[in-house]
Amino acid sequence: MPEARRCRLFTVLSKMTNPTPAEFRLPTPGCYADPERSGLRASELFDGMTEHLFFTLGKLAPSATKHDLYMALSYAVRDRLMMRYLVGKQALRETPRKTVAYLSAEFLIGPQLGNNLVMLGIEDAAALALQQFGVQSPDTVLEVEEEPGLGNGGLGRLAACYMESLASLQVPAVGYGIRYEFGIFDQLIRDGWQVEITDKWLKAGWPWELPQPDEACVVGFGGHTESYTDDKGRYHSRWVPAEHAIGIPHDVPVLGYQVNTCNRLRLWRADATESFDFYAFNIGDYYGAVEEKVGSETLSKVLYPNDGTDEGRRLRLKQQHFFVSCSLQDMLRSFEKRQISLEEFPQHWAIQMNDTHPAITVAELMRLLIDEKHLSWDVAWSITSRCLAYTNHTLLPEALEKWNLPLFASLLPRHLEIIYEINRRFLQQVRLRYPGNNQILRTLSIIDEDGDKAVRMAHLATIGAHHVNGVAALHSELVKTNLMPEFSALWPEKFTNVTNGVTPRRWLALANPQLRTLLNEAIGEGWIQDLDQLSKLEAFQDDKSFLERWEQTHLAAKRNLSSIIHRRTGILVDPSSLFDVQVKRIHEYKRQHLNALQVAAQYVRIKEGCADHMPYRTVLFGGKAAPGYYMAKLIIRFINGIADTINSDPDMDGRLRVLFLPDYNVTTGQSIYPASDLSEQISTAGKEASGTGNMKFALNGSLTVGTLDGANLEIRDRVGEDNFFLFGYTATELQSLHHGYRPWDVLTQQPLLQQVVNLVEQGHFSNGDRDMFQPLIHNLTHHDPFFVFADFEDYLRAQEEVSRAWLDRPRWNRMSLLNSARNGFFSSDRSVREYCTHIWKAQPFPVEVKCELPGIT
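The line above is the sequence of Alpha-1,4 glucan phosphorylase; the predicted C-alpha cells follow.
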C-alpha cells in the first residue's frame, strides 16, 4: 500500500481548509475529517465497501453474498460514525460538559444500517454504491440485518428514541445496558398458540459494536460483610463477595441527524474471572472446569429470565446489579482519569433510572462512594441524591419490583445494610413530619413489612432521586394521587411529568419513505429536525388534489404491508380495505380480548345480514406474551381461533379478514405503522402509563379509537375531538364503578355480547373444544378485572363511527392528515428537551472541532 494512502487511512483530521459539500457534507462548519473515512459520496462508500470486503471480511467482490455486502456497507458507514464519535470525545475531554447517563435494562434500537443512512443523509449514495456491486434494490441488502435483541417492548423502544434524540440535539450522553446474547424470544404460531424459540440475533456477527476489553469492570455477588475501624477510630463496613463477574463493555455508536454528535450505547457482556479450572479438568471434572465461566456468562445470556422460579428471580437481580455496578464504576473511572473531585460528580453526570430495573443504583453508588472512595455518608448521599432521577413507567402493582429479603441479603448483603441505613434516616424525617403516625411509616418504608418482607425498589428510587417523573400527563397525576400520594405530599417538588415521544427519523423518515417524499415537497425537509413544522400541513386540509395524493401514499404503504402479510402468513388481504391494527405487548390491561370480542360481534352481524353498511375491514394483531403469562397466551389463541373461523367462512367474502402477525418487532413495526388506517389504543383507563405506539400511528396519519388512558388523552386534545374515536369509562368513573361491578349483570344486558360469549362457550372458535377458552370466559364473567364487558357496548358504538367515517373518503383523508399535522408535540426531541431543562440540567454541545487527536498526525 503506498505510503500516502496509508497516511490517509489513519489520519483522523485532514488538513483541508475548505472542504466542499460534495467532499464532506457536515452541517456544522469546522469539523474537517479525512474523506477516505468520512466521505459521503457514492464513490467513497464504494471504496470503503471494497476495502472492508477485502481486509475485514476476506472476500472478493465477485463472490460476495448479500450478507457480505451488508457487512461491508455497515463497516463503511460505521467508519463515518466513529470519526464523529472520536472527535466529539476529544472535544469533551478538552471542554468537559455535563453528560447524561441513561440506565435502562432495555434498548430496543432496531436495525441500524438503514437508520444510520438516514442520519448521515446518504441513502441515495449507498444505493449507487450497491449498484456497482450489482444490487439494484438496497432493500435486498438492508433486510439481511438481524434485529438486535436488546429489549422487549415500549420501555426499550422509548430508550432507543431518547438516545437518538439526545444525539440529534447534540447533548452528550451514554446509554448503559446489557448486551444480551439472546433476546427475549422469537415468536412462532403453531396451532394458534404462541411458541417461543431462541432469538440468536448475534449468530452472523454484528458490525455495529466495538468491544473495549481494556475498560472492563469487576462486579461482586453474595458473600458477607465485615466491620472494622480505621486509624481514626471511625466505624466502617466492607463487603467480601463470594463470587465475581467481569463486565466487558461493547460500544454502539448513536449518531444524531445531520450533526457531528455521535454518542454511544455502552452494553455490558458478562465474563468469568477465571474461564477454565485446570485442576478440575485434570482430575476429570470436565463440567467443573468451565462451571464458573458458564455461571458468570449467564448474566448477559438472555433478556428477562422467567421470574416464576427462585433461580429466575435471583438471576434477574444479579443482572440488574451487574449492569448498574459496571456503569457506575465506568462513570467514576472517568473522574479519576480527569482528576476531578468526586464532590463535583453531579455537575458532570446526570443519571436517569429508566423504571425500577436500575433502582439498585441508589445503594450501589452509595457503596462505591463510601466503601471504595472513602467518603462520609453525608457527602456520599449529597452526591447520590443530586445526580439521580427516576422515571416511573407503570401503575400496576405487580410491575413495581419488590425483592424478597432473604434473596436480597444472600446476593447483596452490603447493599441491604446501606438500604437499611437509608431507610432509617428517611423514616426519621417522616416521623418529624408525621409524629405518632405509624401507618404512614409502614406505607413509605423501603422495607415492605406486610407478609414476606421485601425491598421496594420503587421506594428506593423515589427516595434517592431528585426528580420522579411519569410519562404522560394522566399517568403522572395518577402517580401522585394513587400510586405514591404520601411521597408526593412529602416532596411535591420532586414529582413532574415528561410525556413520552418518538423519533420522527426512524418512525416516519425511514419507515414511510413515500410520505416523507410528499412532506418534503409540500412543507420542506425541516420537519425531520423540528416536528412542529408538520403543522404546515393544515393548509392542505381542504385541498382535494393533495388529499388524493395523501390517500395514494397511504395506499402504497398498505400494498407493501399486504405483500409482507402474504409472504409470512399466506393470507391475502385487500389493500383497499380498512386496516384496523392493534400491535403491542399482549396483556389483559391492554385488552386485545376486547378487540377480539368485537371482531366476533361484527362476524355475527355479517352472518345475520345486519352489516350492509359495514366497510371491508382487515383486522391485524401483533405482539408477544410473556412465556409465563398463561392468560396472555390464551388471548393469542383466542384471536387465532376467531381468525381461523372468519377467514375460512365463505359468507365473509373478504368483508372481514383477521390475522395475527407473528414475531412483532421494530422491523415489522416500520411496515405496519405507515400502513395502518385505525390504531387500537383500548387499554383500561388508568392502567397504561403512556404508550408510544399510539404516537407512531398518529404520526403516520392513522386515526385512533381509544380510551382516555395514557397519552391518548393528550393525543385527542391535540388532534381534536372530531379526529379521535373516543369510548369507555374514564379512570375516575372506573374507581367509582369498581366496588359494585358485576360483569355477569352487564353481560345479561347486552344481547350481542351474549351471542358472542355463547359461541365461544360452544366451541365455535375452537373446533368444537368447549374447554379451551373456558378460563378466559370465566375470568370475564366472574371477575373482569379490566372492565372488558363494561366498555364493550360503547366500544361497538365507536367502531360504528369508524365505519361511517371510513365510507366518507374525503372526510377520512382530512382526519388522517390532521392527525399527522398536529402530532409535532409527540417528538422525542421535545421530551428530551424537557428532561434536559427540568431534570438533567444538561446543555447541547455542538461538535466544532479543529484539533488533532493525541498521537495522530
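Note on the example: The chain has 35 helices and 23 strands. Residues 320 and 358 are 6 Å apart (CA to CA).
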